[in-house]
Specification:
Blueprint: E1 5-9, H1 13-24, E2 29-33, H2 36-45, E3 50-54, H3 62-72, E4 77-82, H4 87-95, E5 100-103, H5 109-133, E6 137-139, E7 142-144, H6 150-164, E8 169-172, H7 179-188, E9 197-201, H8 207-215, E10 216-217, E11 229-230, H9 232-235, E12 240-244, H10 251-263, E13 265-266, E14 275-276, E15 280-285, H11 289-294, H12 300-306, E16 309-312, H13 323-335, E17 340-341, H14 343-351, H15 357-371, E18 376-377, H16 384-387, H17 400-419
Parallel strand pairs: 1-2, 1-3, 3-4, 4-5, 8-15, 8-16, 9-12, 12-15, 17-18
Antiparallel strand pairs: 6-7, 10-11, 13-14
Length: about 450
């Protein structure tokens, strides 16, 4: 496996050495550069998984370098490192696509490695989410969702009805099930469709920046606030605000969000002037908010404000009818055509747990396309994580009785395939409890 490549742009030799030692010890490949122009030249020639950028360089302003980095590679993960950081600079860097920021001197090696690993994971999720959105097809300017299962068809048929009303919506479901896609569908069929749809991931924004990004701030509101800046509540006016991972919102943000939803007004940081706002809130979570309420991690009053309408998107393993259409779709996206799939391979795919849901399925298909060119997908073409016996560990998610019954059923079905459907002809099987099993 190739080592993740990190480019460190900082003219401080100590910082270069410190970061290099930390990351190389974690298995990263590290390149250092002291000047912005030199770093940009390196990026033209090489690909880097992550860039660590000082905001104060001898030849260029760090924000200018960040913008040029994003021009070269829009998907690049950038962490700002600076001893000259201000809140305004940090917010500005986040707006231009930085993932995180670290102040020098660093508190610990663990903080640096955690920030890097977290940024790379978020980059991975972002790329997967972008790829997932490619499953969307445009028909008459509206988003469509690929699904044949009854569960998803029921959800899709209800969207046109709830799009007409303006109530807040909470979308629940595991990561990778398509919550943002459903949110976009609701927006595009509502009277707000010509206004902004602004998505914001509460879990992806450092807690100390959340309020600034959402509310905006006045000039002089805090050290480094050199100009008035609008926030998402102002920018989204008339449209739809999509707050993903709402369960990750800080307690302070929960209080402020509740007030905005109640009063339909807010004020920028550093101002007492109230600004009217008009937006529909669609929130999403992969966590059990009621359990968070019980543990005092989420406000009950906020929950009832955002969950006026609730939509639950079942995981892919509970809607197996969607797997084959999605496979064909991802094959078309990758190769321009579909392939035949053997009965055995399809059975493995349909019975896999898909903890990463549609994102994981897409990764699986891309893996197949990368390593196999045969016109028929068979079991030997599937990634090892699908075919590995380790997948038996999924039974540990069941109770002992359910796992035992599941094994007995599958064992009998395999015997029937080998010996025929007459159970009387099967060899004695005293350890099996036949009443729990069905063979057809």
């Amino acid at each position: 496996m190739n080592k993740p490549k990190v480019l460190v742009i900082d003219d401080d030799v100590y910082v270069q050495s410190f970061i290099s030692n930390v990351l190389q010890g974690k298995g990263f490949s590290v390149t250092v550069s002291s000047r912005g122009s030199h770093a940009l030249s390196l990026m033209q020639q090489h690909h880097y998984d992550l860039i660590m950028l000082d905001l104060k360089l001898p030849d260029m302003d760090g924000i200018d370098v960040l913008q040029k980095i994003k021009t070269i590679d829009a998907d690049s993960a950038v962490i700002i490192i600076t001893a000259y950081g201000t809140m305004e600079k940090a917010v500005e860097a986040m707006r231009f696509g930085a993932y995180d920021f670290l102040n020098k001197p660093f508190d610990s090696m663990d903080k640096v490695s955690f920030s890097v690993c977290n940024a790379l994971e978020r980059k991975k999720l972002k790329l997967e989410n972008t790829a997932l959105k490619k499953q969307l097809q445009r028909q008459n300017g509206l988003t469509t969702f690929i699904a044949q299962s009854k569960q998803m068809q029921n959800i899709l048929s209800s969207i046109s009805k709830l799009a007409v009303v303006d109530s807040n919506v909470l979308i629940e479901g595991e990561t990778g099930t398509g919550k943002e896609i459903i949110a976009r569908l609701i927006h595009e069929q509502s009277h707000r469709k010509d206004k902004p749809f602004l998505p914001l991931n509460c879990g992806a924004i450092p807690e100390n920046l959340q309020e600034s990004i959402l509310f905006g701030y006045e000039k002089g509101a805090f050290t480094g606030a050199y100009s008035q800046t609008t926030g998402y509540f102002e920018d989204v006016c008339g449209g739809t605000l999509f707050l993903d991972e709402i369960g990750e919102a800080s307690p302070d943000l929960q209080v402020k969000l509740l007030r905005v939803l109640q009063d339909k007004k807010f004020s920028r940081i550093g101002s007492t002037c109230l600004i009217n706002t008009d937006f529909r809130l669609i929130a999403a979570t992969n966590r059990d908010l009621k359990a968070l309420i019980e543990s005092n991690q989420f406000r009950e009053d906020l929950y009832y404000r955002i969950a006026v309408i609730r939509i639950y998107i079942p995981p892919l393993r509970e809607r197996k009818q969607d797997i084959l259409p999605l496979i064909n779709h991802f094959l078309k996206l990758k190769t321009g055509k579909t392939k035949k799939i053997s009965k055995e391979a399809l059975s493995l795919l349909e019975n896999y747990t898909w903890k990463g849901n549609v994102r994981e399925l897409q990764n699986c298909i891309e893996n197949i396309c990368a390593f196999h060119n045969s016109p028929i997908i068979d079991t030997q073409d599937l990634p090892s994580w699908i075919t590995s016996p380790q997948n038996f560990t999924q039974n540990f998610e069941l109770t002992y009785r359910d796992a035992k019954q599941k094994f007995e059923k599958e064992y009998l079905e395999n015997l029937v395939q080998l010996h025929g459907s007459d159970l009387k002809k099967l060899p004695p099987l005293p350890i099996l409890s036949y009443p729990h099993c069905t063979a057809s």
